[in-house]
Amino acid sequence: YQNDVNGDGKLVAADGDKVYLYVGMRRGGQLIYALDVSDPDTPKFMWKVDEETVGTDGTKVFAAMGQTWSTIRPTSIKGRTGPVVMFGGGYDPINEDPQPALSPNTLGRGIYVLDAVAGTFLKHITHADMGAIPADLTFLDRDVDGKSDRIYAPDTKGNIWRVDIHDADMTNWVVHKIASLGGTGADARKFLNKVDVVLGKTFDAVLVGSGDREHPFETTVVDRFYMLQDKFVGLTGGLFCGSSTSATTCTHSDLTDVTSNAYQDASLPTGSHGWYLTLRTGEKLVSNPITVFGTVIFGTNRPTPSTDGNTCGNLGEARLYQIDFRNAGAVQDSNVDGALNVSDRSSVVAGGGFLPSAVYSPVMIDGKRRDVVCVGTRCFRPGGAKFDTRRHR
After folding, report:
1. CA distance linking residue 315 with residue 321, whole number of Å
2. With contact defined as beta carbons under 8 Å apart, do 352 and 321 qualify?
3. In whole angstroms, what is the distance from residue 103 CA to residue 144 CA?
4. Omega within 30 of 0 (cis) for the link into 104
5. 202-216 confidence digits (pLDDT tens)
6. Distances in Å between the alpha carbon of 165 and those of 99, 131, 178?
7. Tens digit of each residue's pLDDT (9 = 90 or more) over 115-171
8. What CA–CA distance (Å, rounded) separates 279 from 235?
């Protein structure tokens, strides 16, 4: 969290500027620390929460918090003058580490809301159908007033959630299950990476992929990448996959299978509420998706047999995808055969392993702006779309 109180573009403790760091433990446990580093020469401990922390009512308000994987994200909401932090409930090793995973989750369900400065518990957003949420949260400021209006979050049971938080009264916040895409056996999809959202006039495109990176050699689950059309673009309610008067949770039957059909410049069939792309056998999403200039970019990994006799295997096949967020069409001719087709959607990255999440960063080179996406040390211009199309949020 950064607050440049006088707007001079510098963070100076003597000016009253504030910089706070929020740190989770991932596999290290059920802990979150907050540090005040406004003066980097004299960092200060602010607060800590764990499963033993009690709320104002004397109960252990974080008893169901899982391992703290989700980024502890500061934001502003209506009804509060200071910042809050929110994060997914966490990873549930007791129920998610076994194969197959156990249900229901006993840890990590829901979303926590805390006062960013004091660390006091404000709210646990949950729902009876929620799985654990180790992924980062996605916030939207739909009315552009500087306050978050929506949260999107995926869970480990194959569900996608949207929480409407525009109301200043937290008791009026509404939880919607906008998609149910999991199950058992081959359908036991887990979402461990965040949702990306592209705002639109008729729908917001919700982009997310499944993959259990904690079990990299697992090959029985059929993982997929999705685009869901959230057709309610106001501040409340939701149409999702229902009729014009009622909302229902989206399932695969509401989406178009684009695995073997690159629609390219064509629109999805009438009545479709989005699309899904089935990945190769054993292939899993391993990074957060990002959409830049109409192109959604993400990395996957697929276990491959060892060729050197190493019984521990190798780093697997890494693929980098660049596809049109609207229809999953290819955006660049990777095979250089003069045509865009399904095989142009991704390219193999030498060395294998888990690719880091893509980062968008415009840079100035010789006085000219260049729009660049970097995946680790691999930097490139996003392929295909013109540079006046929608950017990611």
Report:
1. 18
2. no
3. 39
4. yes
5. 899 999 999 999 999
6. 35, 20, 16
7. 999 999 999 999 999 999 999 999 999 889 999 999 999 999 999 999 999 999 999
8. 34
d(CA 176, CA 163): 6
Closest CA to 192 of 275, 316, 285, 303: 285
User: What does the block give as tokens for 304?
Assistant: 């491959």
User: How far is Cα 66 from Cα 106, in angstroms, rounded to an integer?
Assistant: 9
Residues of the chain with pLDDT below 70 are: 236-239, 242-246, 262, 265, 307-313, 384-393
Look at residues 142, 18, 127 and name the one whose alpha carbon lies nearest to residue 83: 18
**Helix H segments across the chain?**
93-96
Distances (CA, A) of 355 to 38, 147, 209, 213, 215: 33, 32, 14, 12, 16
Q: Which of 74, 71, 58, 63 is nearest to 30 (CA)?
A: 63
Q: In the chain, count H helices and then E strands.
A: 1, 25
Predicted TM-score of the model (pTM): 0.93
* DSSP single-letter state for residue 40: T
SS3 166: coil
- Number of C-alpha atoms within 13 angstroms, CB side, residue 196? 27
